[in-house]
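Quick one, probably user error.
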């Protein structure tokens, strides 16, 4: 098999890229190791910045999102009996949209299939060759058979545990990494959510109340790094969440059936440059931000907008100038966004090792944000997201 751009991974990065390339008249094939059902049911992000919403709209794929999404106008931060209420439209003139990542993924896959976009499930990429040459190859295993896809370019959109970043020769890429000593236990519950996205820094640890619909809450608790989600009975989860949210009477947060639970370790990770030879890396394959900023999916979309722009330009003009700028262009946004997510992580979590001095500094900072509109505006501006700059 042969194509112009071989895309590894049918997560948000790979799927958006295939659609954007198609719009630019560039052909691609997506290879995904998992089944369609698995990819469509993986619960993850929920907060879409304006740039991500715009991208779905420009592709003509926003009909269901417009019907089913929720607008998030407010962000609350609770600490020591106080609440900071960030009025997003008042502070920034913008809001964010709540629409589950797996819903975005379902919409993108359905459209790929109806448009005849080549998308192979259960096709596990095992290695890449010829990245330095003109015709790089993707080796993959499908139905017990070894197969090869020959491409002009390869897009590594295969997430943090994928194979494409590992295909870059040693010494050609630098890794910057910080792993936190804790994780988030996330659940989905059939219960009416709080009206605003609510983060809390309590003496029992961080918690977050988000939502997926008027009937489904998405809730998170800071837990130990190696926590087993099964160790959390429903009763234990609700009891802990009420306490961390300062909901002493247990009436504010509505309990319901917990039907999904997962644990994710918090880390920051950036690999630079985001390119080697004819391999271009995008999304979680090349950077991870702690989820406190709600940015991973949005960064993945910004990367592939730039990559599709640069590849489209190459096929139209034979000029490589935009491809040459891809990594530098994306990394500016990546470092700023990782910086924001890191600051929010450090402001809102309880660090087991931090001691009373750093804990009081956290609360002093929260008090300052509580009293300062300028400080609130700075957080709100970063939460709604940077405008997208075309490559
Ligand atoms: P993905 O989604 O991991 O997709 C990679 C795909 O590659 C496939 N793959 C392979 N395919 C073929 N051959 C191989 N050898 C392969 N190896 C892997 C995988 O099966 C998979 O389908 O990466 P992508 O596309 O870069 O998308 C990134 C986002 O998924 C991620 O950044 C976000 O979910 C992060 N995130 C959030 N982002 C936001 O923008 N807003 C949020 O509110 C938000 N909340 C979150 C989050 C991530 C979380 N977790 C679970 C870490 C909340 C949480 C709890
Ligand atoms: C979510 O709704 O899953 C969510 C919201 C805010 C975050 C992270 C995740 O910071």
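Nope, works fine. Designed sequence:
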């Amino acid at each position: 098999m042969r194509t112009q751009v071989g895309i590894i991974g049918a997560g948000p990065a790979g799927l958006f890229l295939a659609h954007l390339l198609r719009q630019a008249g560039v052909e691609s094939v997506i290879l995904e190791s998992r089944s369609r059902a698995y990819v469509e049911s993986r619960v993850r992000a929920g907060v879409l910045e304006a740039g991500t919403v715009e991208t779905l709209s420009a592709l003509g794929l926003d009909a269901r999102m417009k019907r089913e999404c929720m607008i998030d106008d407010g962000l609350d931060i609770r600490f020591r009996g106080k609440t900071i209420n960030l009025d997003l439209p008042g502070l920034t003139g913008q809001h964010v949209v709540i629409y589950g990542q797996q819903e975005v993924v379902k919409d993108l896959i359905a459209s790929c299939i109806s448009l005849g976009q080549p998308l192979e499930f259960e096709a596990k990429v095992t290695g890449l060759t010829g990245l330095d040459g003109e015709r790089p190859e993707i080796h993959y295993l499908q139905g017990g058979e070894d197969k090869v896809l020959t491409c002009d370019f390869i897009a590594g959109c295969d997430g943090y545990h994928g194979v494409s970043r590992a295909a870059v020769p040693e010494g050609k890429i630098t890794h910057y990494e910080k792993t936190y000593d804790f994780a988030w236990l996330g659940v989905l519950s059939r219960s009416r959510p709080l009206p605003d996205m609510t983060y809390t820094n309590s003496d029992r640890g961080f918690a977050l109340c988000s939502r997926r619909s008027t009937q489904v809450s998405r809730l998170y608790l800071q837990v130990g790094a190696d926590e087993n989600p099964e160790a959390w009975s429903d009763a234990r989860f609700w009891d802990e969440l009420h306490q961390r949210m300062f909901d002493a009477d247990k009436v504010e947060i509505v309990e319901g059936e917990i039907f999904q639970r997962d644990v994710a370790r918090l880390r920051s990770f950036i690999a630079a440059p985001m390119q080697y030879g004819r391999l271009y890396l995008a999304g979680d394959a090349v950077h991870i931000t702690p989820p406190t900023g709600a940015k991973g999916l949005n960064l993945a979309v910004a990367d592939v907008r730039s990559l599709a722009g640069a590849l489209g330009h190459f096929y139209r003009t034979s000029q490589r100038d935009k491809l040459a700028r891809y990594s530098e262009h994306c990394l500016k946004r990546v470092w700023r966004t990782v910086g924001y997510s890191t600051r929010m992580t450090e402001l809102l979590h309880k660090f087991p090792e931090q001691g009373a001095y750093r804990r009081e500094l956290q609360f002093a900072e929260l008090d300052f944000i509580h009293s300062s509109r300028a400080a609130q505006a700075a957080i709100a501006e970063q939460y709604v997201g940077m405008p997208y700059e075309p490559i």
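The mean pLDDT is 96.
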